[in-house]
Specification:
Elements (H helix, E strand, L loop, with lengths): L6 E5 L3 H8 L8 E3 L3 H4 L8 E5 L5 H4 L5 E4 L18 E2 L4 H19 L2 H9 L15 E5 L3 H12 L3 E5 L10 E3 L4 H6 L3 E4 L13 H4 L11 E4 L8 H9 L5 E4 L19 E3 L9 H16 L15
Parallel strand pairs: 1-2, 1-3, 3-4, 4-5, 6-7, 6-9, 7-8, 9-10, 10-11, 11-12
InterPro entries: D-isomer_DH_NAD-bd, NAD(P)-bd_dom_sf
Keywords: NAD, Oxidoreductase
Organism: Rhizobium bangladeshense
């Protein structure tokens, strides 16, 4: 009986954490970590499983016998479209911790805009004692775009806080107690939305999706102006349109965790806008140990002849 195939790991984040976690991960099969100089030149032709985040461009020619590809995050746009991508299942990362972290970030941003935290920050720096009257959450409609696992969890937690929550996805989803819209209902969805939360995957259809025209379709409601929050994919937004929309008053503020180019350039005007909250793509960072447990579980399913979970549909890109 041949030895089990090691897991090929090519992850372009937190190299120290990855290396440490790999010391105890995959005890029955081992791993090949391309970030380790000792592993970087190894022969990959016998490798059957690969865990990837923004992998090297020549990876698939070096590892021509893959059976399953695992994404190192919830998205797969960093893999789809690569040259030589084999016709094998691509599994995205779904984990309770990642989902919870994303919902925490979304809830925090909605609350900061609800309570005008940026205005309080300005008054604090000026040492001014100035009370602000905020609406209740129930007076504000949060529209969540993207109703996968992350989106549905965010919807549930926003509802618990009392927000009026509606949802949109390319094909309509059914969620108890939540009005949902599909592609044909986009304008009606936007016209009801005070705080727009973007959790869409990146596809050709969503590239540049959040633009000036879309922002103009949002309503202000109890906040007096609409707000844009994005933790989905940076290339889904047009940052120059966000800046213009805020400066001209079309948007009252924004919270951004993702950007067209990362890291965000030091000369980006987004840094200087007082009513924009910026985080460095860390709203829901993949925790290494949870990621490796997820891969190990799915490999075990695959080798028992069971159906893999969380396999993406290549036709739609997620």
């Amino acid at each position: 009986m041949s030895a089990p195939s090691p897991v090929l790991v090519d992850l372009k984040f937190n190299p120290e954490g990855i290396a440490h976690a790999l010391k105890t991960a995959f005890p029955d099969r081992g791993s090949i970590n391309l970030a380790d100089p000792a592993d970087a030149a190894r022969d990959l032709r016998a490798v059957e499983y690969a865990l990837l985040w923004k992998p090297d461009g020549d990876l698939f020619s070096r590892a021509p016998n893959l059976k399953v590809i695992f994404s190192g995050g919830a998205g797969v746009d960093h893999i789809i479209g690569m040259d030589g991508l084999p016709d094998v299942p691509i599994v995205r990362f779904v984990d309770h911790s990642l989902t919870t972290r994303m919902s925490e970030w979304v809830v925090m941003q909605c609350l900061m805009h609800l309570r005008a935290q940026y205005a309080h920050d300005i008054k604090q720096r000026r040492r001014e004692w100035a009370k602000l009257i905020a609406p209740e959450a129930a007076e504000v409609t949060v529209g969540v775009m993207g109703l996968g696992i992350l989106g549905q969890d965010a919807v549930a937690k926003l509802k618990l806080l009392g927000f009026d929550v509606i949802g949109w996805s390319r094909t309509r989803k059914s969620i108890d107690g939540v009005e949902t819209f599909d592609a044909g209902g986009l304008d009606r969805f936007l016209g009801r939305t005070d705080i727009l939360v973007g959790l869409l995957p990146l596809t050709p259809e969503t590239t540049g999706f959040y633009d000036r025209g879309l922002f103009k379709k949002l309503r202000g409601g109890a906040l007096g102006w609409p707000v844009f929050i994005n933790a989905g994919r940076g290339k889904s937004q047009i940052e120059s349109d966000i800046v213009s929309a805020i400066r001209e008053g079309t948007l009252g503020g924004a919270s951004l965790d993702v950007f067209e180019v990362e890291p965000l350039a030091a000369d980006s005007p987004l840094w200087e806008l007082e009513n924009v909250f910026i985080t460095p793509h860390d709203a829901a960072v993949s925790e290494e140990n949870a990621l490796f447990r997820h891969v190990e579980t799915q490999i075990a399913r695959f080798e028992r002849g069971e159906t893999l979970q969380f396999v993406i549909d290549r036709a739609v890109g997620y």
